[in-house]
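note to self — DONT lose this again. spent like an hour looking for the file last time. sequence + predicted structure for the chain T wanted, 509 res
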Amino acid sequence: MSDHSTQNHELPEPAKSPNKLAPKEWLSGLKTVNHFAQLGNQFSSKVLPLSLDNPRIVDISPEAAAELGIDENQNTGPLVDLLNGEYLPESFEPIAMLYAGHQFGSWVQQLGDGRAMILAQIETPSDNMWELQLKGAGPTPYSRQADGRAVLRSTIREYLCSEAMHALGIPTTRALALIDSDTRVYREEVETGAILLRMAASHIRFGSFELFASRNQPEQVRTLADHLIEHYRPELKDDALPYLSLYRDVIQRTADVIADWQSVGFSHGVMNTDNMSVLGLTIDYGPFGFMEAYDPGFVCNHSDHNGRYAFNKQPDIAWWNLAALGNGLLPLLELDQAKQAIEEFGGLYQLAFRNRHLKKLGLVGDVPEDDALIEDWLNLMTQQKVDFTNAFRALCHFSTEADTPAELADLFTNSGDFRRWLEKYTSRLALQEVSDIDRQRQMLSSNPKYILRNYLAENAIVKAQQGDYSEVVKLRQILSHPFDEQREHSSYAKTTPAWAANLSVSCSS
């Protein structure tokens, strides 16, 4: 969840940075562009990171490093210094972004990066643009008397989940690396401070537009929209109605990412408009959770007392948030255009949801009864409280030419209901000219074996708090290949053990 901001945007200039230059070889090949910082102090504030005591690397994601063209096996000293704010290249311009948002449905007129700061926007040798952002590097003008820190437990969760979601093929912010420290941070109890370096093409949110529209600043809304089109959606430049096309693009991407979440049982937990990306990324990992026993009403955030962000409400909340974004774009849109665009969301989402579940069930072609078959399967899992991930994965091994695999049949206590569904499924498979082997191969690439279960993250956190980061590394490695069998790691696909049944997460970080 984003930290609240101060209410006054008359911000002091930071003191001169004592930071030295980072060794050039570590950042060689990266071109600093800082397009967003160049928009000026109406959109962000200059900041400086505040270092932690005795920083040490916990893990580096090789996949994320590869995106930047960086060799993670190089000397990590410069990376630790960069994460800890002790080295900054002269071309870097650290800023905290300004935005507003609806939090749990209530309007908050000014928020902002309270514990995050963008170090720079860079271009890689492959012409990709990334914002490098520190999370937990100290207070900003938007921290509202908070310390601007992140604790080790939440930083590990975001690091692991960011990379796990990427490996699942779901649009997300990335996580390059994280550091631990000896700095003490006070939450419900004393914890260890940590810093995460996360990456995204952009961190602009729905609430970025909401803020300027609420202040009756149409030119700032236009500037922000033009920035998005110029640097991220240049194909929209020549459209007759480029701003409407931009809004429709956000609607489509949001429909797609929500369908992605629903297809893997992911619950965001804090779908405030300040936590929604205009690029359709999964952003701001706070009290998230992967559902285990299938429960459409699953609420992962124990602070969400009314279940506003329950798993089955995520599509409706996405629509609500898109409507709020539409209001923020009204300085650039006709009201009727915006209404027509947002009403397209339901159909776009349903199509995306259907397509993903057809792949998960190995179904090819357009058969009218498929919607009922999908719904019946989900209802069957709901009634029998079957593990969402394991049920889909076990179904991958079903063959029309062999007995039902025990790993699948044993999941369902009411064998009668299960076998009746399986008969319908078998009849449906007979309508398509796809071999069992080809179907199984396709299903195995659509249904992960490994997800970031809460207890797995907890195991890694407990070890890390004792100075042993090996489980963080191992878990990141396993989750980087979620569709592979990895038989030596099969225990990581097991459901929650009894000791972890009451684990909960909240917005505290």
